[in-house]
Design brief:
Elements (H helix, E strand, L loop, with lengths): L1 H12 L11 E4 L1 H18 L10 E4 L4 E4 L2 H7 L8 H13 L4 H20 L4 H22 L8 H16 L8 H14 L9 E7 L7 E3 L1 E5 L13 E3 L2 E5 L8 H4 L7 H24 L4 E4 L5 H9 L3 E3 L4 H11 L3 E2 L11 E11 L2 E9 L5 E7 L2 H23 L3 E3 L3 H14 L5 H13 L1 H9 L4 H13 L6 E4 L4 E4 L6 E3 H19 L3 E4 L23
Parallel strand pairs: 4-14, 8-9, 8-11, 9-10
Antiparallel strand pairs: 1-19, 2-3, 5-14, 6-13, 7-12, 8-12, 12-13, 15-18, 16-17
Length: 555
């Protein structure tokens, strides 16, 4: 008894081992995993109604501005989600948007459905690592099935490729706010990408927004257009139209500064001060003379062109514009072939750009400078018109998605039918394979297969259809072996061959969304503990301090 008492007392006297800071919150085990899945399901339920041509819009107000959008990535970013596990869904939607441009809502909904299916398996006692193993196997099978369903577009003629690209862009636009003008903007997106030729840099496509007018008044310019910059006296005397002009691009300031702003001069004789002023005037006049001698008729600068230089150019029949935005300068340089100069000395004719026509035109309530007929041609501008600011902003986001789709389709010309057809075929393929797998794997694979049915189901629900009836018809069609391209027919509240209905998407959209959704689900399933660190504090709690004084602490 005495020995036992000593052992108990020795255990009681041992100090506690402090691993984490005081106030650190830890949650672990299956309850924490289920909690993470529930948080993700809440996010999915927020955005699932935006899916498809009949998807609803979300109005997000963040105390500074109001945004109305049904773009999955935009909504996810604006929600400002702080839950660490749910942030994974935000990441995959942003990744899908930057990589492909479309399918941002699809990837979030699919990831949420995979987690819902996994939750049922976890509640049945299946270990998360077993689920992850079968999910990754199923992902490989799903991607292989999608590749087998693709339609090759690389062997088509140029006219057929253009039609293919326009239909892919129109499919992406059908779920947007501007779906009523899908064909109009689809042609615009294809024309913009084709102007870039082999250099598919989207920064070379300028997007300008001008409120007012109708959507059909939106303009596509084969060249560069930008809003008139801030101007000084003498600007209205300058000519606003040139045919075959030479264009000089500068990154220097052509403006006189007051002496007190940038220099301190001490002189004994007042006449010497005048010599400094005259020297400064001579410097700027020498710059202006050098510019005129280049033969350029249009002078643009990223920095200010002051009233002296403006009037100087006006007297000589030249056009000038200062404080031109950097992205517009880069597009003008690419389109006209001119090089941006940081000095006016030794400018050769090869450094100047040229175009067939430069003119200033009125667009809505603003004046724009147009550079058209550019020989280099690797630039385009789209001026969006519309009745309201929110509408134009959403039109810009929608058109960006369509342009991204066309860009990817130019590089990867394989296409697949949309409307949930591919998801249903993948679901049927995985389900049939699951029947051949014994044990727990069968349950997991069936859940994986059922998750893909969420896409056509949500498309039908968002359109107000009977989703149960639509899914039953699709299951029967796909199980028959001849319905691989059959999906939801939004126009007739039925099912149809979406390939024949020209509902086309790049295969890359489906491949990327399946991969991203599966990896996101596996990432969340692999987390069994969440540790929330307490806020850092300079003060060390007294109970963690060694006994006695020292270290500057009071006794």
């Amino acid at each position: 008894k005495k020995t036992r008492l000593l052992c108990v007392m020795s255990n009681m006297l041992q100090p506690g081992i402090i691993l984490l800071k005081e106030g650190t919150d830890t949650s672990q085990g299956i309850p924490q995993l289920i909690s993470n899945i529930n948080a993700c399901e809440m996010i999915v339920n927020t955005v699932r109604t935006t899916l498809g041509p009949c998807g609803m819009d979300k109005l997000v107000y963040n105390e500074r501005r109001v945004t109305i959008s049904n773009d999955g990535a935009t909504v996810m970013k604006l929600l400002d989600i702080v839950h660490p596990a749910a942030r994974t869904l935000v990441d995959i939607s942003i990744s899908q948007d930057s990589e492909v441009g479309d399918g941002t809502t699809t990837v979030v909904v699919l990831a949420g459905e995979l987690l819902t299916a996994a939750k049922a398996c976890i509640e049945e006692g299946i270990h998360p690592q077993v689920i992850i193993k079968y999910y990754r196997q199923a992902c490989v099978m799903a991607r292989e099935k999608v590749r087998s369903l693709t339609v090759m577009g690389g062997d088509k003629s140029d006219e057929e490729k253009t039609v293919l690209l326009e239909r892919c862009a129109a499919t992406a636009l059908n779920s947007k706010l501007i779906s009523g003008h899908a064909n109009f903007f689809a042609k615009m997106a294809v024309s913009a990408i084709k102007k870039l030729e082999g250099d598919l840099d989207l920064d070379l496509i300028g997007m300008k927004k001008e409120p007012g007018g109708s959507v059909e008044e939106s303009m596509f310019i084969e060249g560069v257009a930008f809003r008139k910059t801030f101007s000084y006296a003498g600007f209205e005397q300058q000519p606003k139209r040139f045919e075959n002009p030479k264009v000089l691009l500068l990154n220097i300031e052509l403006e006189l500064k007051a002496e007190k702003d940038n220099a301190e001069i001490r002189v004994n004789d007042p006449e010497k001060f005048q010599s400094f002023v005259d020297a400064e005037w001579n410097i700027i006049y020498n710059k202006l003379d050098a510019i005129v001698k280049t033969g350029a008729q249009v002078i643009l600068s990223r920095l200010a062109i002051g009233d002296l230089a403006t009037q100087y150019f006006a007297d000589r029949g030249l056009f000038s514009a200062g404080r031109v935005p950097g992205d517009d300068m880069a597009r003008v340089s690419k389109a006209t072939g001119g090089a941006i100069q940081t000095s006016v000395q030794n400018i050769s004719p090869s450094m100047l750009g040229n175009c067939e026509l430069f003119e200033e035109r009125q667009v809505g309530g603003q004046r724009y400078n147009f550079f058209t007929g550019c020989k280099s041609g690797k630039s385009a501008t789209i001026i969006l018109r519309g009745g309201g600011e929110h509408f134009i902003d959403e039109a810009e986001r929608s058109l960006h998605d369509a342009i991204m789709i066309v860009k990817r389709a130019m590089k990867h010309s394989n296409i697949v039918p949309g409307g949930g057809a591919i998801e249903m075929e993948v679901s049927n393929h995985i389900y049939e394979h699951a029947l051949t797998v014994p044990g727990k794997g069968q349950l997991i694979l069936k859940g994986f297969a059922k998750a893909f049915e969420a896409i056509p189901r949500q498309l039908a629900q968002n359109a107000g259809f009977d989703a149960t009836e639509i899914l039953s018809k699709l299951r029967k069609k796909h199980a028959g072996g001849d319905g691989a391209y059959w999906g939801v027919d939004i126009a007739n509240e039925d099912i149809c061959n979406t390939y024949d209905a020209f509902v086309w998407e790049p295969a890359l959209v489906k491949l990327n969304s399946i991969e991203a959704a599966t990896e996101a689900a596996c990432t969340i399933l692999s987390v069994d503990e969440t540790i929330k660190n307490a806020k850092a504090s300079d003060k060390i709690p007294d109970e963690y301090m060694p006994g006695g004084g020292g270290m500057g602490q009071p006794f």
